[in-house]
Write a structure and sequence with these properties.
Elements lengths: L9 H7 L13 E2 L11 H11 L13 H15 L8 E4 L2 H12 L5 E6 L4 H8 L3 E6 L9 H7 L4 E7 L11 H13 L3 E5 L20 H5 L1 E6 L1 H4 L7 E4 L3 H11 L10 H13 L1 H22 L15 E5 L7 H12 L1 E2 L1 E2 L2 H4 L6 E5 L4 H16 L2
Parallel strand pairs: 1-10, 3-4, 3-5, 5-6, 6-7
Antiparallel strand pairs: 2-8, 7-8, 9-12, 11-12
Helix pairs in contact: 2-11, 3-11, 4-5, 4-10, 12-15, 13-15
C-alpha cells in the first residue's frame, strides 16, 4: 500500500511543501489547503530524472518541446481522451497555470471579454485581467442542478472572445456530462468563440462519473478548443512546474507559440520537467490507479465526517480531491470560519473568498484530501470539537 501515513515524510514536507502547506503553517497545524499531494511521486519518475541527470549534460532543448514529451502527451490523449492532436501542436509550459495565462495572452487584447465559471479557481480571472481583458462570471450550480445555457448566451457580447472551462471543476468537484460539454461547444462554435479547456484534473474522476474532453466531441468544436493540462494533481509534480497546451488548430498553435517567446529563449520549459512528465504518462498508470483508489476512500471519509458536523454540508465531489463545504448554517462567513478553525482547531483550510474562487464561493470553505486517513481523521476530530464549542 503506497498511500498510507507511514509513507508520508513529514520532515521533508515541512521543508519543501510551500503554497499554504506544511512548510508555511505553524508547527502543529494540519494544512488541508493547496491541492497538492502529501505522498512522494511514483518511482518511475524518480528513476527517469536520475537517469537523465547522471550523464551530466543539460543542454538547450527544442524551443517547441522535447519530442519524447510531445509524443507522450499526444499518445495519452488519443488513448485516454479520444482526442487526436499532432505532437507538433503540443507546447510544454512551466505549469498549467502559465498555460492558462499564455492562452489568454494569445487570444485576448485590452477590453476583450472572457467568460469564466463562478465559482472557479482564481487563475482564470487573474490571467484574463493581466492582459487587460475583463472576466465575466457565469454561475455553475452545485451538484446535478441544471446549467442555464440561455443565460450563458445572454452574457456574450461583441467583445467576448473566450469561454473558459474547468473540467472537473475546482473547487466544487463537478464533472461535466457529455451533453453539458456539447452545449458549451455548440455555443462557442455558434458565436465563433475560443474554448479554453483546463483539464489538469481530468484523471481524478470518481465512479460512476466519467470524463469527456470537450475536444473529443466533434472536429468543429475541436478546432475552437485549446486544452491546458498539467502533472501536479495526478502525479505530484507541482514543484517541477510542468504543463502543456494542446490544440488541433494549426493557426491557434502558431499564435500561442509566437506569444510564448520560446523561440527567443526568453521563456521555455526545462528538460528535466519534460522528461519527468513523459515518464509519468508512459510508466505510471499502476501508481495512478492505486492513488485514485486511495482518493475514493479519502473522499468517503471526508463526506461522512463533514456531514456529521453541525452546520456543515458537502455534496460529494464527482472529481478533484477537494471538498467544497457549505458552512452558511453556522452563520459565519468564509473568512471567519477560516480564522476560527486555524485558531481553535489548528487546521488550515481555504476560505471561499471572492479573490480565491469568485463571488459564488462565499459561505464555503475548501479542503484537500490528498493525504492519509490518519491525517484526515485527526483534522476532522479537531474541527468537530471546535465547532461543537460554538
Amino acid at each position: 500500500m503506497l498511500f498510507n501515513n507511514s509513507n508520508i515524510n513529514f520532515s521533508i514536507l515541512q521543508q519543501r511543501a510551500y503554497n499554504l502547506r506544511w512548510a508555511e503553517v505553524e508547527k502543529g497545524v494540519i494544512p488541508l489547503t493547496a491541492a497538492d499531494l502529501d505522498f512522494p511521486c511514483a518511482e518511475p519518475i524518480i528513476k527517469a530524472i536520475s537517469s537523465y541527470s547522471e550523464k551530466g549534460y543539460f543542454n538547450y532543448g527544442p524551443s517547441k518541446g522535447l519530442p519524447l514529451f510531445k509524443i507522450s502527451i499526444a499518445s495519452y490523449f488519443q488513448r485516454e481522451r479520444n482526442v487526436y492532436i499532432n505532437p507538433e501542436n503540443i507546447l510544454p509550459t512551466d505549469s498549467a497555470a502559465f498555460g492558462i495565462y499564455l492562452t489568454c495572452k494569445s487570444i485576448l487584447t485590452a477590453g476583450d471579454e472572457a467568460i469564466i465559471f463562478d465559482p472557479v479557481d482564481f487563475l482564470f480571472r487573474y490571467s484574463i485581467e493581466q492582459v487587460g481583458a475583463n472576466a465575466v462570471p457565469f454561475q455553475i450550480p452545485p451538484g446535478c442542478e441544471n446549467i442555464d445555457f440561455s443565460h450563458l448566451e445572454k452574457l456574450i457580447t461583441p467583445k467576448t472572445k473566450l469561454i473558459c472551462i474547468c473540467n472537473p471543476l475546482n473547487p466544487t468537484g463537478k464533472v461535466f456530462t457529455k451533453e453539458e460539454l456539447r452545449a458549451f461547444g455548440n455555443i462557442a462554435v455558434k458565436h465563433n468563440l475560443i474554448i479554453l479547456s483546463d483539464e489538469i484534473w481530468s484523471d481524478i474522476v470518481f465512479e460512476p462519473h466519467t470524463y469527456t474532453s470537450i475536444a473529443s466531441l466533434s472536429e468543429e468544436i475541436s478546432q475552437q478548443t485549446i486544452i491546458v493540462t498539467g502533472f501536479s494533481k495526478s502525479y505530484g509534480l507541482s514543484g517541477l512546474r510542468i504543463g502543456a497546451i494542446l490544440t488541433s488548430n494549426n493557426k491557434l498553435f502558431e499564435t500561442i507559440y509566437h506569444a510564448s517567446l520560446y523561440q527567443s529563449t526568453i521563456h521555455g520549459v526545462n528538460i528535466i520537467s519534460q522528461t519527468a512528465a513523459a515518464a509519468a504518462l508512459n510508466s505510471c498508470e499502476p501508481w495512478l490507479r492505486e492513488f485514485k483508489s486511495h482518493l475514493e476512500d479519502m473522499k468517503t471519509i471526508c463526506i461522512n465526517r463533514i456531514n456529521k458536523i453541525k452546520g456543515f454540508n458537502c455534496i460529494a465531489p464527482e472529481g478533484c480531491y477537494v471538498a467544497f463545504i457549505d458552512i452558511k448554517s453556522t452563520q459565519m462567513s468564509s473568512g471567519e470560519m477560516y480564522s476560527y478553525l486555524l485558531d481553535k482547531a489548528k487546521v488550515s483550510v481555504v476560505p471561499g473568498l471572492s479573490e480565491w474562487f469568485g463571488q459564488g464561493a462565499e459561505g464555503y470553505i475548501r479542503i484537500s484530501f490528498a493525504s492519509s486517513d490518519t491525517i484526515l481523521n485527526e483534522a476532522f476530530d479537531r474541527i468537530e470539537y471546535a465547532i461543537s464549542s460554538l
